[in-house]
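Question thread 4412

I'm putting together a teaching handout and wanted feedback from people who do this every day. The idea is simple: show students a protein as raw sequence, then show them the structure tokens that encode its fold, then repeat with a second protein so they can compare. Below is the first pair exactly as I plan to print it.
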Amino acid sequence: MNSIPGGLRLVIASANPDKAREMQEVLLAVLGDRVELVARPAEAPVVEEDGETLEDNARLKARAVRAATGLSALADDTGLEVDSLGGLPGVRSARYAGPEGNAANNIAKILGALEGCDDRRARFRTVALVAMVDDAELVATGVLRGTIATAPRGAGGFGYDAVFLPDGGDGRTLAEMGADEKHEISHRGRALRELAGLLSAYLPDNERP
């Protein structure tokens, strides 16, 4: 595995600004100025996320943006897996309430499905993938276990954060935590820190940890 001449440039393939911001914050905290992160260009194609797994969807997005820009591209896909719902919504988490659904509708559907249910155990799973310009693919996974709250709490985060109570926390949802605090424990933070270790092999020798 050879370093990329001129250093490492990555396009963040996500069209979700909240997710893109988290990716940038976590990777820069680990790799600093050893990596240059490039915003997804407006003209990049919209990718239909119709894969059967989180990794499939991350790969679809990363390859499409790599083809559009000629740069290595970083994408992820995240699913909320609820035990008593048989792992749903899983890979369909972003569209759980329908193709035009939003976070509020998705949360309302989850809470409705769990009404009266004692088993509210769940996990967030993130798969982060980089499609490199040399055609290699780097893949990392992060998991955060917890439970689903009975009502949304907190103004931070996005997606299902307002109803997710992480294990080992102090009773707050992810949406009640500050950004740095969330990154330290989150599924996405864990996946991206693992991915940063894989990316270090592509850094010039004098910039590797």
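The second pair follows. I'd like the answer to focus on this one:
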Amino acid sequence: MSRANMFKCIKGILSFFAIMLLPAAIVAEAFAAPTIAGCPVFPADNVWNTPIQTLIADPNSQSYITTVGAGKGLHADFGSGLWDGGPIGIPYATVNGLQPKVGIVFDYADESDPGPYPVPLDAQIEGGPLSAGDRHVLVVDTGHCILYELYSAYPQPDGTWQAGSGAIFTLSSNALRPANWTSADAAGLPILPGLVRYDEVASGEITHALRFTAPQTRNAFIWPARHQASSLTGLQYPPMGQRFRLKASFDISGFSRDTQVILTALKKYGMILADNGSSWYISGAPDPRWNNDVLHELGLVTGTAFEAVDESPLMISQDSGQAKQINAVKPSPPTNLSAQ
């Protein structure tokens, strides 16, 4: 071996061991947090942003799939245009740090974060102003990177809002809601991090779990959920917070490009059960750029293509959304070592 190659070999070996000795948290930084208007949508090591390909299946997986609907297809509960006079999906607004805050009167004040909230009077409401549905209102204060979410929100003539419940989340924090507290969602989770957003799909990658609904859930919740919304006790009913993923063996090659992006995310990050509703309805933000015909391709993916996973190995604390990064990609040994 020449002296030059010997030094190159030694340098490569030292570099390899230096990387291998890095703390796990640094290695895990290969996964970056999604962002909205410059704000992180929770830290990179948050449970929403953590891949789950290596987790084992939940023992009740098959029962859950049967209950939610083994033969029922995925449905994009979002799109372009209007449906019954309202946007298709759950809209969100971004405001700067100077947006005036207004009072909120809550029906469930004991489990809501008190106002005021920086909600514009003209904020988009899920389903439109005449909606009789969930009427979610989501606002991101980009000046402070704080998320405000309301359920059953109605603007009042004086500029305040009446709402069923509300929750405030610091987007740089892994903090969860108090146990047994609802949020603007039945599971006590934030809604925004689970939405499919057009810009993400256009970029070619979604880097977080999705939010979805099921018609029947158990009177229980598991981490990271904080609340249940059912009186059913049978073990065939999935609890709030249950995570599912698209099976790695499911062939997505025949789908359109945008559909493949969504399905790839469902393999890597999966989806979290967050509310009672229709079977396999995944949530997203409305956008005029969505192609509704392409989104309908998701209906070809039925419940049999999914499996429930045991997410408990990711939990560090039941009161925190921080997740162990067991899926982090470790550096490969250097390939430039040679001996002559």
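Top answer:
Good format. For the second protein you could add a caption like this: The chain has one domain: 32-314. Confidence is low (pLDDT under 50) at residues 1-30, 328-340.
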